[in-house]
Design a protein that fits this description.
- The structure holds 2 protein chains of 2 kinds.
- By secondary structure, chain A is mainly α.
- Chain A has one domain.
- In chain A, about 70% of the residues lie in helices and about 0% in strands.
- Chain A has 22 helices and 2 strands.
- The longest helix of chain A has about 35 residues.
- Chain B is mainly alpha-helical.
- Chain B contains 7 helices and no strands.
- The chains are: A mainly alpha, B mainly alpha.
- Chains A and B meet through helix 9, helix 10, helix 19, helix 20 and helix 21 of A and helix 2, helix 3, helix 4, helix 5 and helix 6 of B.
């Protein structure tokens, strides 16, 4: 691991890759601070644009966008009481009160520093925890990989959303889309309808972009916000240093980082859950919990640190096992696949410079965020908040169009983008989670091929699927996760008065 | 999330998305049954996987449709309007369809400029100058970065001869 890290360092700090990280951070800050756009949307727009670029350049932009977007959401949360991303909702509670008390600049500093600390610790966790997980996964054969895929699908389907049937349907849609194309084992064309463009299946990049970038465009037009933020709110002046009060904030940072990292690793959790849990924990142990919600900087610190801490951590199962722990991780997984990088032990074996470089890019962008997200930078990049949001809808579409077209030079892909985008909008409005679709699309082919391989090796004996201890554990975990909502419902009904 | 005054008439009216919920679930059932029918002509080893998934999706779709019907019968349909603002949603979808069709016919540049000006205008935004400026800046940035710097392709464009001279 140390060797791989040392090899990756010069690559990560090559001038072009530093530039990529800075571009990603700035783009992430802008996407994060624009209400209605999330990091997932930003990544969905970015990934097709990076197609054909050097992998580390592209991954540097993705890492920067993730970390930058994570903090960017705090800017309108603090200045306008409008969370830029769902994960910034907890930041609003104390951040906006601080703005009302004339402490906006201080609140932004606390948010930035806390986000940076959370992101740094999360990146360290990614670097330290991924390799052992990869070593463990070397014990896996086709049977275990089949169950691992099922476990990933089960967790994300059941946890990303309040409605299990809808989560499972979303997963089913992804699996069906993943089945389109030529069956590599016997050449059968499945659901291609004679279209040559579909022979290799739907392009993951087009589907990702359609699902995550088109629905926000429609929503922006529907909401039609025609005014931007007042420029006065961006006249920020330095108000003391959050860094000089490190003793005061350190306990909050440590607790929130641990919460963020643990939540980040757990499949299906992350984002807003990390920041809320960190915020609640900070309030629970505070000497003066009644001040939370009334402009307590500890509230901002806890929320932003928890939010930053789940970023890189959510990629631990994604990079090591190919099982993303969150919607953002699923999209990044798609981004890796677009660049021909299949996560799992193979990635660590065949491209150690890239995978460790990517991890280091998370660490580097965490530090760079301290510069790019500073008060002066916030004044500059925050200007985008003054732009009426309705103007942004066509802008997003332009970048998406050019990115998607240039992947295969295909107009057909643009129509697929539109179709998937419209379906994505309907799914979103009806509360079907989108992440399981991506998971189904990415993991479906793996599940099918590993299942076939396992059955071929066992001579068609289905009992072989539960013939190893790891397979049994993974199967039981999958079943437990799928049955948990039903068990919860049963308990609620029993607990309810007759 | 801030919303303009006119942004959510359906939500204010307390509308229900129930009909769309049922229609979409039934559409999923139909697509799943269609997938099963199509896959039945494939060799067994190629058909088994999509048939199993489609069958599961059909059952779940039916479950959701029936659940929603029961909710309606009990007078508690799923609350919340389907669209924030249906007329603007229709305009946005139509604009996207026309835009992609135009990109196929006359290329990227002119439809993109038109989209940047006309889509906000269709939603009631009247600062044409700002829309045009944003559109021009974006199109020029895309051309400079993706076409000239990175050598990436754009759809065949009416202005391609002009662009070639500028290279």
């Amino acid at each position: 691991m140390i060797d791989a890290l040392l090899h990756a360092i010069p690559l990560v700090f090559a001038p072009m890759n530093i530039l990529a990280m800075v571009i990603g951070l700035v783009a992430g800050l802008i996407v994060g601070c624009l209400p209605g756009l999330t990091v997932v949307t930003g990544l969905a727009v970015l990934i097709p644009l990076t197609f054909g670029l050097d992998p580390l350049f592209a991954l540097g932009m993705m890492a920067g966008m993730y970390n930058g977007g994570s903090y960017g959401g705090a800017i309108p949360a603090i200045l306008m009481r409008v969370p830029g991303t769902p994960a910034s909702v907890a930041t609003v509670l104390d951040g906006y009160k601080m703005t009302q008390q004339g402490k906006a600049a201080y609140a932004l500093q606390v948010a930035l520093l806390s986000g940076v600390i959370g992101s740094v610790l999360s990146s360290v966790a990614l670097i330290l925890l991924s390799p052992p997980l990869v070593s463990f996964s070397l014990l896996f054969g086709p049977i275990e990989y089949f169950w691992l895929g099922i476990l990933g699908l089960a967790t994300v389907s059941s946890l990303l959303g309040d409605d299990l049937p809808k989560g499972l349907i979303a997963c089913g849609i992804g699996l069906l889309i993943g089945a389109v194309g030529q069956d590599i084992s016997n050449g059968t064309e499945r659901f291609t309808f004679g279209q040559l463009d579909l022979l290799d299946g739907f392009s993951a990049i087009v589907l990702l972009t359609g699902l995550f970038a088109v629905p926000p465009v429609l929503q922006i037009v529907e909401e039609a916000v025609k005014t931007g933020m007042s420029g006065d709110k961006l006249k920020l002046h330095r108000q003391g240093s959050a860094l000089s009060q490190w003793r005061f904030f350190t306990p909050v940072w440590i607790r929130s980082s641990i919460i963020g990292i643990v939540i980040g690793i757990l499949p299906g959790a992350g984002g807003s859950m990390s920041s809320f849990l960190a915020y609640n924990e900070a309030r629970r142990v505070a000497r003066n919990p009644e001040t939370f919600g009334h402009g307590n900087p500890e509230g901002v610190a806890a929320s932003e640190c928890g939010n930053g801490a789940d970023n890189a951590a959510s990629l631990i199962p994604a990079l090591a096992l190919g099982i993303p722990g969150s919607g953002v991780a699923a999209v990044i997984l798609g981004g890796l696949l677009v660049h021909g990088l299949r996560p799992g032990p193979q990635l660590f074996r065949e491209h150690p410079d890239i995978v460790y470089g990517f991890m280091l890019q998370f660490l580097a962008t965490s530090f760079l965020l301290a510069i790019v997200g500073g008060l002066a930078a916030t004044r500059i990049f925050g200007q985008v908040l003054r732009l009426p949001r309705i103007v942004l809808a066509p802008v997003i579409l332009l970048f998406v169009t050019i990115g998607v077209y240039s992947v295969n030079n295909s107009l057909f892909d643009l129509w697929v983008l539109l179709g998937v985008g419209l379906v994505g909008y309907v799914l979103e409005r009806l509360d079907y989670p989108s992440a399981p679709i991506v998971l189904g699309l990415l993991l479906g082919p793996m599940v099918e091929s590993q299942l076939r391989l396992a059955l071929t090796i066992s001579g068609g004996n289905a009992a072989a699927l539960v013939s190893t201890p790891i397979a049994i554990v993974l199967a039981l975990l999958s079943a437990a996760i799928l049955l948990t909502p039903a068990w919860r419902l049963l308990r609620q009904r029993r607990g309810a008065p007759a | 999330m801030e919303v303009t005054e006119e942004a959510a008439p359906a939500a204010r009216a307390g509308g229900s998305r129930s009909p769309v919920e049922i229609a979409f679930a039934l559409a999923l059932v139909a697509v799943s049954i269609g997938a099963i029918a199509i896959a039945s002509s494939y060799p067994v080893e190629s058909a088994a996987y999509p048939v199993a998934i489609a069958a599961g999706t059909a059952v779940l779709g039916l479950w959701i449709a029936l659940r929603e019907l029961l909710r309606r019968r009990h007078g508690v349909p799923t609350p919340g309007a389907f669209a924030h603002h249906a007329p603007r949603l229709v305009v946005a979808v139509a604009a996207l369809v026309v835009y992609f069709a135009a990109v196929g016919l006359i290329g990227f540049i002119l439809p993109s400029l038109a989209l940047c000006i006309l889509l906000p205008a269709a939603a009631g935004f009247r600062r044409w100058g700002l829309s045009a400026l944003v559109g021009i800046v974006c199109v020029v940035a895309i051309l400079l970065i993706f076409v000239y710097a990175l050598g990436r392709p754009i759809p065949d464009d009416l202005l391609s001869p002009l662009l070639a001279k500028l290279r």
